[in-house]
Amino acid sequence: MVNVMDKNQIISMHKQGESIKSISKKLGIARNTVRRYTREHDLLMEQLSQENDKAQIALIQETICSKPVRKISSKKKNALTPEVEQRIKEMIQIDEERNKKLGPNKQQLTAAHIYRKLKGEGFTASESTIRAYYRKLKDKTKECFIKQHYEYGQVAQYDFHQVKVVIDEKLRIYHQATISLPKSNIKFSMLFRNEKMESFILSLVIFFSFCGGVVRKIIFDNMSTAVKRFCFKNSKEKEYTDDLIKISNYYGFVIETCNPRRGNEKGHVETGGKEIRRNLFCLKYKFDSEEELFDYFEKELKKYNQPFLEEFKKEQEHFLSLPVHPYELGRLQYSKVNKLSLISVDGNFYSVPDCYVEKRVLCNVYSNHLMVYDDKNNLIAQHAKKDGKGEYSINILHYIETLLKKPKALPNSYALKQAPDFFQSIFNQYFSTNPKEFLLLLKNFESFDELSKYGFKKDDIEEMITNDFGNCLSDIDTVSLNQLHLTSRLFGQEVVDE
Description:
By secondary structure, the protein is of the alpha/beta class.
């Protein structure tokens, strides 16, 4: 190839009037090559004489004085076989199909992920080859990052990322809570149905349990679960939420938040969360059930963190010690019981015993359940948490006293419709014309332990009726003999009179 000295000699001799043939002979360079550089020089000089724009003049001068540019080789790359090209196109097609089904999302396929996938499938193309071909098919602007330095056990970063998947042919949106440890490069992550306070607190509690200790400082962005409000006089001063302050006091970590719209200040978790989402869901996004999704997420996350476990063990030695008991306080809120003996929590309705109508009760709301207390802190009800809006969770045992006064209201009541199937089958088979007897049957047992005293198998009964049934029954110390005979007949058991 002609170097910069050869180019200089060609141009100098050309300007002195020597012919192309003479220059070629003296320098030992092919005539076509000499002709190419002399023509290029003459053309640029002509452009320069006609140009008035300073920027363009500088650009032309730089081209005239620069070293020769190597001609791009047209040699075909051996590793980039038609099979490799076809596989890359298949992955990009899956990426595009996912975008159509899920809509706008951040689970985009990257050249790095394609390279890792191809390498795992036995292809030998290098990463640079894959990146070059990927850029041809799908151009992407590179992002710039600033290198940071961290100490062991010093900092963790928190962020939520949205994940779109298809479960049982239905589009579902989950919220990926990610907490990263920049020093050891470990990423802890969980999937939630929402980003509410109870999900936020639960993710922190399980993260500390996963670490076996407490990191000294956690950096959050300005999410509503972390920052209650900005101070009016100084926008840099913030008031943190009560729940975040409580868990910070309990575990002893320092709260730090980014400046507004400066997510790059916690770039490790921003990048790590996106990387987990892409690696796990860019090609695999269809699941038959939620359980399959959670199992897949947990299994793949373990694989993702496997290379960093040695560093993580070193970092664990620098964590603060955990409290003896994990933090169990949910989101507290007061609610007033309405005339239907229901309370409203996050737009859904939950029953409490009917003796609390028009009274105020305290709710402790967790990510997947809630517990209700009276003014003396006695537990009066507990429910599995509803995810939608306007849904009802009604326990028939909360309405026994009212239904005994209004037994004809039982057949069409929400209380019976939401009762366990076992209860409904008993009512329809034996008590459809006498609802009051059915209510007395429910009232007269304090717990399933009472049934076991009379020869009934507790395990079989618990399979038919929800586990928390016994917690909500009214207090009756004795069971009438007639009720025992009736119950034994229903369960197919014999009761011996004493």
